[in-house]
Amino acid sequence: MKKLTIGLVIILLLGSLALWAEEETEDIDFIIQDAMDELDYEIDDAENDKILIKQKYSSFNSDSPKMGVFLSDLDFEDIYEMHYDYNYGVYISGVTKNGPSDKAGLMEGDIIMEFDGVKVRYEDHLVRMIKSHKIGDEVKIKFFRDENIYETSLTLDTLEKKDDEISLPSGETKRKIYLGHGGGGWLPVWFMPDVTSLNSVLSDLEFKDETFSEDGFLLHGGAGKGNVGKGWFIGGMGAGYNNKETSKHDWEHYANGELITSTVSRKAEYDVSYAGFTLDRRLGISNGIITSLGFLIGWGQNLIKISQSDSNSPIPNFDFDDPSNNMDDYYDYKSKLRLKKDYIVFQPKAMLMVRILDWLAIRSEAGYVLSHSTDGWKAKWNGEKVKLDNAPDSNLDGLTLSIGPWFGF
To answer: Of 169, 191, 214, which marks where a domain is finished?
Structure first.
């Protein structure tokens, strides 16, 4: 099972790397909107590294007004880098040469704030307002540029001119994919560390042969991150797991000078956890679907508690006529061993997120935890620090898989 799961993770990581390198397709739909299925395009690279789009018309006529711009919704990166202090507007990612917006003085990189006195909420909102007017209508445009707000007048027109040529710098016709602003949520993690040495020790203490599952177990935790620009996200996460097992043991001991045998309870408690800071680089596949590669660096811990108590026999009253023997008898009834091992952890990982609502997405992630301990196991036996001989050789290395809700994007 582990080999199959590791193979799937390798395929996921390689697939994410391929997506990372893949170029975004050029979106030139917005120039001609509803006429796309009746137009053919010839796109060639010009010597000046510009894209030349020749529009060839047959018997097509359009009465749809246009501004002659490429548009995209604003994201956190745009707002942060442009020092834009408003929660509305649409980003101009390209302007058609000699089109209405070009003649009105609008430029690539401007943000359209208002259209004919109405605040522009998002791209489709502006498109609907444009279509509600007629060719030749003059509208007022309020826009943001270089931390200042300007106004201009624009006359809506068509772009259907035979043998017209539109020249745009290479790459500027690409519509920006929204990479999200960040968020957080509950984080379930299926973790598969190697616990065989731990189970071997517990088996010698008369627990089950596989006290803790060697196929993995479910950690619960939380995570959060925020967009810091250029597709980079910084955040943090943490998750942990706790489980307890009990067994019975025939305990031979001396009481009142006599060797007796009684049945006692043994309990094993296992805690594992890790947490740290995360750094991810996101790549948009499409609006609403993103992937990322990143890592976590932080700390982790293995904690094992083994206790034995004679729950079937009452502890006698303490008799100060013979305090030394009474103290010895008391320790016969209870014994506790506590083992702790701390680690530095590093976790490379790949993530895929699908947006469902404005505030909700489904997030899946695969990674691998690598750990290193400088101090080894630290032990306490009945409250006293002791050294360990032949301690179990264990670490926090293991595969992680996670899928769950993400609040935000």
So the answer is: 169
Report d(CA 269, CA 242) in Å as an integer: 7
Q: Which two tokens stand for residue 252?
A: 């031979």
pLDDT tens column, 179-207 = 888 899 999 999 999 988 888 888 888 78
Closest CA to 100 of 160, 174, 170, 51: 160
Q: Is 26 helix (H, G, I), strand (E, B) or coil?
A: coil
Is 30 among the domain residues? yes
How many Å apart are CA 238 and CA 14, to the nearest integer? 26
Give the max Cα distance, the chain: 115
CB 274 within 8 A of CB 396: yes
- Which structural domain, as residue segments, surrounds residue 350? 2-6+179-307+336-408
112 φ/ψ angles, rounded to the nearest 5 degrees: -80, 115
Write the pLDDT tens digit of every residue in 390-399. 888 888 999 9
Q: pLDDT tens for residues 227-263? A: 998 889 999 999 999 998 888 877 776 667 778 777 7
Does residue 203 sit in the same domain as residue 105?
no
Among 124, 145, 169, the domain boundary falls at 169
Q: Alpha carbon 110 to chain centroid distance? A: 31
Instruction: Single out the residue of 381, 242, 352 nearest to residue 292, CA to CA.
Output: 352
Number of domains in the chain: 2
Residues 409, 183: contact at Cβ < 8 Å? Answer: yes
Is residue 143 located within the same domain as residue 184? no
**For residue 139, how many other CB atoms are within 10 A of its CB?**
21
Kindly state the helix (H) or strand (E) to which residue 298 belongs, with its residue range.
strand 289-309
385 and 297 within one domain: yes
For 290, the 3-state DSSP assignment is strand
Beta strands in 156-202 (DSSP E): 165-169, 182-193
CATH number at residue 139: 2.30.42.10
Q: CA–CA distance from 302 to each of 128, 198, 266, 273, 394 (Å)?
A: 59, 11, 20, 7, 9
Instruction: Return the sign of the alpha-carbon dihedral for residues 217, 221, 227, 232.
Output: negative
Same domain, 183 and 268: yes
Residues 383 and 264 in one domain: yes
